[in-house]
Design goal:
The chain is mainly alpha-helical and 160 residues long. The chain has two domains: 112 residues, no CATH class; 45 residues. The protein contains five helices and five strands, in the order αβαβααββαβ. Strand 1, helix 2 and strand 2 form a beta-alpha-beta unit. The mean pLDDT is 82.
Length: 160
C-alpha cells in the first residue's frame, strides 16, 4: 500500500513522515511522529517504503511514558464536546483551526526539531529536496550522471 500512502495523507490532510530506509532514521521518525502529533493536535502517518523491509540491526530504546489521560480516567469522568464532532457546520471550524493553529504549530515543531535532514557534502554546488525514502535512489542516479563536488568528489546534497 506504499503507493497510496502519500495520496491518502494528502486527501486526509495528515502530516506524513517518510524516513530514510535505515533503522535509526525509522526509529527517530516514530518518536518524532508521536511528538509532532501532540504538538500540532493532528494525526501523523509514517510511510515505510518497501526497501525498509530489508533493514536489520539494533537500536536504543527509551522508557515508556505514562499518558496524560488514561483510559480509566477518561471512562470515570466522560466529557461530551459537540464542537469536536466533525460534521457540518462544525467541519468549517475544524478547517479554520487547522489553517490558523495546527499547521503553524507543525511547521514550528519541524523547524525547531530539525526534522528535515540535510545530508551530503556541504561543498556540493547543487542540492535537491526529496522525500526520505527516495533519497538513496535519487543520489545513486545523481552520482551516476557524474555530479561532483567542488573538490572533485562525487556528491549529492539533499534535504529529506
Amino acid at each position: 500500500m506504499q503507493e497510496r500512502t502519500h495520496a491518502f495523507a494528502m486527501k486526509s490532510q495528515f502530516w506524513l513522515l517518510d524516513p530514510r530506509p535505515n533503522l535509526p532514521a525509522i526509529v527517530k521518525a516514530v518518536g518524532d511522529g508521536f511528538e509532532l502529533s501532540e504538538a500540532s493536535n493532528t494525526p501523523v502517518m509514517l510511510m515505510v517504503r518497501i526497501r525498509s523491509c530489508h533493514v536489520t540491526g539494533t537500536f536504543a530504546t527509551k522508557d515508556n511514558r505514562q499518558p496524560e489521560l488514561s483510559v480509566r480516567e477518561a471512562l470515570s469522568n466522560p466529557r461530551s464536546d459537540f464542537a469536536r464532532v466533525v460534521l457540518p457546520p462544525m467541519s468549517f471550524a475544524h478547517e479554520q483551526d487547522k489553517v490558523r493553529n495546527r499547521w503553524p504549530a507543525a511547521e514550528k515543531f519541524i523547524r525547531e526539531r530539525g526534522l528535515n535532514e540535510v545530508l551530503g557534502p556541504k561543498e556540493a554546488p547543487v542540492g535537491i529536496v526529496v522525500q526520505g525514502g527516495t533519497r538513496t535512489g535519487c543520489c545513486g542516479r545523481w552520482s551516476g550522471w557524474g555530479s561532483r563536488t567542488s573538490t572533485g568528489r562525487r556528491g549529492c546534497r539533499s534535504t529529506c
